[in-house]
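quick one before i forget lol
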Amino acid sequence: MALRSSISRRGFLGASAASAAAAALSATRTASAQSISTSGPTPAPIAALPELAAQARPFTNAERLARINRAQELMATSKIDAIVLANSTTSSVYFANLRLNGGERLWALVIPAKAKPFLVCPAFEEGRARELLEAGPFGKDADVLTWQEDESPFAALGKGLADRGLSAGTVGIDENMAFVFSEGIRAANPHLTLVSASPITAGCRMIKDAHEMECLRLACRATLLVYRAVAQSLHPGMTTSDVHALVGAAYKRVGFVGEASLNIDEFTALPHGSRQQQTLREGSILMLDDGCDVEGYTSDITRTFVLGKATDKMKHVFDLVHRAQSAALATARPGVPTADVDAAARKVIVDGGYGPGFTYFSHRVGHGIGMDMHEWPYLVKNDMYGYDLTPRLKAGNLFSDEPGIYIKGEFGIRLEDDMFITESGAELLTPQSPSLEDPFGNMA
């Protein structure tokens, strides 16, 4: 559920079967009771976290060239002659490991369907541009087209296309490009037909390969380990700021950049929480959400749990949300409309008395995940970014599976794990939460 530009937004005591977990949690709480600030000693559960960063494998230039080849294949199918990625889009990193941070000045990576890609940048930046390109898949052979401060960068881009046989044609524009750039390209090149590049960018990025999934699985494992260690370090009296410090310390131990939002009690009824400072108390219900970055790929996981004992109402709501998450998982498989996955989860919640429609389950059941925490496609009727309003699941897709029930003024419960579409069905990359009082009991 988390929303973030790079990464942003978005325990347990029981009895009987959970008694062992409760005893362990009680001990770790006692041990960490004096360790709520970054200047104090590190709580034992966080100190015990494994270092995982060494397990991450960087992506190679050969892999990026294969992505460019795939993009060119999709351009031929979609009758798009070139795509333009401008000023620090995720897709420019995906294809060429380029972070095009040009501010108000146009930097653009242009990938034609039948010619070598080229870069457009300010003339005074050419040296830096070539240095960036040399480290990527184009090496020293990259074409760099430059423009002076008193010249039109959009005309330079058009000339680059014309020099490659595209004096007229259909050009795909990255969906995240600033309007000032897309409008500049259109105005300076009336001979070009501009369309969305999403069939190409999304067409490539929506299908994860084995290396991408390796990174995503590692990110999910790291996030859940961090959540468990943080949860075992909590005690009444801690504030959200204290918990954020614990999260930072935990991610530092595992070796990845990550964050987590924490919301407590009535603030858990707000799907994206509140900025207000909140304080833990015995019996509080908590919602941890967010993820971490592994080689540019991000996890997105939510755990809701109780600091003490859950009420019967909390347990009932948890059971509905758990069953809704399972229903989405059981429905997801290649060929199924994305809307059906949301409908399956929503039916469980509405049939359980928390309806109709979006009344209590107020958001879609999931979104695509990859290099961006939210990307195509989306598990809901009327998919976003309208190039395909009725997509169907494909093997290689990755989504969040995150139903929730939010009762204003009381509490909310959301369970979120990342769901991979296999050749015959779907799997969660992390084990489902067993209960509010032992949310990590299924972890290996």
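fyi Residues 51 and 254 are 4 Å apart (CA to CA).
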